[in-house]
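F.,

This is the one I mentioned.
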């Protein structure tokens, strides 16, 4: 476990909360491992009927902590993606529990792509979704190249994943991947309300119905692994090297 993640079981709901506000909840490899454990350990626990992902008030997550990400071996030829990040994505693909997200503030990169594995998304009025992979010379990840076009259509997915255009909460709801847009600071409360509603439904019927609605874990993992291999290749490309140099130079300026 890491101090940057809190896991709380509230009745039948497991709340997985990113807790690194000073870094805008940027995800480290330790955080990925802790989130993965929180998801996986719920799978055979009949008492847990629903999972909630949240970043608390003000920010969901700024995506990967890029310095930690690079230290994780992303750029090495034999390790195209840090295993902790890949393990998290596999856990999302294999998860059988209804998954609700509470998004207040920014959701960048994997902060947005993980939402397409969720079954219900609540976003506050100040939520902002963006996937700036292309600006770093990279490609989409997390099976987003499969899930996003299915959810919001090819054209919107192209504008988001390829052109890097961001979406507001209202635009996310219009696109179809946000279920409810609420006032700033109210996403957590609404997500917990939804989780309790789901948890009150017949568990087996929910599980079977959810499985019918989603691509198979095998299909998701195949796409995740394919994207991950391409992601690793791109990390070693001159485009990405130049983009990362420029990014870190801006941070130091």
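My design for it:
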């Amino acid at each position: 476990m890491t101090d940057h993640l809190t896991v709380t079981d509230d009745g039948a709901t497991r709340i997985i909360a990113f807790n690194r506000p000073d870094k805008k909840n940027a995800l480290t490899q330790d955080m990925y491992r802790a989130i993965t454990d929180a998801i996986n350990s719920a799978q055979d626990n009949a008492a847990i009927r629903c999972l909630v992902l949240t970043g608390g008030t003000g920010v969901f997550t700024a995506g990967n902590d890029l310095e930690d990400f690079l230290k994780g071996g992303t750029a090495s030829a034999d390790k195209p993606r840090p295993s902790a990040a890949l393990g998290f994505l596999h856990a999302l693909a294999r998860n059988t529990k209804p998954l609700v997200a509470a998004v207040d503030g920014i959701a960048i990169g994997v902060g947005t792509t993980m939402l397409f594995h969720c079954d219900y998304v609540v976003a506050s009025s100040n939520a902002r979704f963006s996937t700036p992979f292309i600006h770093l010379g990279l490609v989409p990840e997390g099976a987003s190249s499969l899930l996003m076009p299915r959810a919001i259509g090819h054209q919107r997915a192209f504008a988001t994943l390829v052109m890097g255009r961001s979406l507001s909460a209202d635009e996310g709801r219009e696109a179809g991947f946000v279920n409810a847009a609420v006032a700033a600071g109210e996403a957590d409360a609404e997500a917990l309300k939804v989780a309790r509603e789901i948890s009150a439904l017949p568990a087996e019927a929910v599980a079977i119905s959810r499985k019918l609605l989603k691509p198979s874990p095998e299909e998701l993992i195949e796409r995740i692994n394919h994207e991950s291999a391409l992601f690793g290749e791109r990390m070693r490309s001159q485009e990405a090297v130049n983009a990362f140099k420029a990014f870190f130079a801006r941070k130091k300026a």
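The first strand starts at residue 5 and ends at 10.

Talk soon.
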